[in-house]
Amino acid sequence: MELSGTGIWSSHLRYGDAGQAAEAAAELEELGYPALWIPDVGGPVLESVENLLTATKSVTIATGILNLWMHDPAEVAATHTQLQAAHGGRFLLGIGVSHAPLIDSKAPGTYRKPLAATAAFLDGLDNAEQPVPATDRVLAALGPKMLQLSADRSRGAHPYLVTPEHTATAREVLGAGPLLLPEQTVVLSEDADFARGIARDWVRNYLAMPNYANNLLRSGFTEEDVTSVSDRLVDAIVVWGDEQTILTRVNEHKAAGADHVCIQVLDSDPSALPLEQWRRLAPVLN
């Protein structure tokens, strides 16, 4: 699996039209992006992984992340084995606990002891008839305990909604060996009002999740930053500007210890594939 350079994180490749997602994945591969990441907030995520693997030849397809409350580890392990055998070992299983408001809204009381739940899910993968090797999986991780679990029982960590400063802290916890694969959200526009408007609405939705809000407070942002979704916070989480500005932020993550950065492109139409932006960024980022 190629886990260096700069990849793409996209909900469109997961929840959009499957045919369009396949065509986009093939083009992203041609553009030189080494890995494509998709989220999981319900539904058959491994079918989406298979769709993207089938459409491509060499890129890594990663879940960012597979929601552990929504899947059985033995079934995940069996499908993982099938996909790796059929597609040359290009599937990276990113696993995470998601967020209490999302999980408990559908099944109150389900979300509890996230660290223990993650360890138990990993136990299930290890004890399956066809285990998932630690080298084929990473964990969504923000705080030090989950980062340490990432180092101990997986290939590394996939932090989301983070700054380069968090990347540096995460690298200190992980040490030199494990992979560090943060997500970085971008808006390819030099219009401050336009870019911040899109970015602020996007960030505000995530700040309703305690995991993210608490991580930002740990990272040095104030309660006022979080409550008001300040320009300072928006600009730290979402980089906006031209191609070189976005490259600079990606390089800051890499200088802080990231092995690979996956960018998530925002635009005014959240339902549309950001093909133009992916194309413009490809020669700069890869």
List the helices and strands and how they pair.
Blueprint: E1 6-9, H1 12-15, H2 18-30, E2 35-38, H3 45-55, E3 60-63, E4 66-67, H4 73-86, E5 91-96, H5 100-106, H6 114-126, E6 137-139, H7 144-153, E7 156-157, H8 164-174, E8 179-180, E9 183-187, H9 192-206, H10 210-218, H11 223-228, H12 231-237, E10 238-240, H13 243-255, E11 261-265, H14 275-285
Parallel strand pairs: 1-2, 1-11, 2-3, 3-5, 4-5, 5-6, 7-8, 9-10, 9-11
Helix pairs in contact: 2-3, 4-6, 8-13, 9-12, 13-14
Keywords:
two-stranded parallel sheet, 286 residues, alpha/beta
Gist of the model:
With 286 residues, the chain is α/β, with parallel strands linked by helices.
Describe this structure in words.
By secondary structure, the protein is α/β, with parallel strands linked by helices. The chain is 50% helix and 14% strand. The chain has 14 helices and eleven strands. The chain has helices at 12-15, 18-30, 45-55, 73-86, 100-106, 114-126, 144-153, 164-174, 192-206, 210-218, 223-228, 231-237, 243-255, 275-285, and strands at residues 6-9, 35-38, 60-63, 66-67, 91-96, 137-139, 156-157, 179-180, 183-187, 238-240, 261-265. Strands 1, 2, 3, 4, 5, 6, 9, 10 and 11 form a nine-stranded parallel beta sheet that branches. Strand 7, helix 8 (164-174) and strand 8 form a beta-alpha-beta unit. The protein is globular, with a radius of gyration of 18 Å. It starts with 5 loop residues before the first strand and ends with a helix.
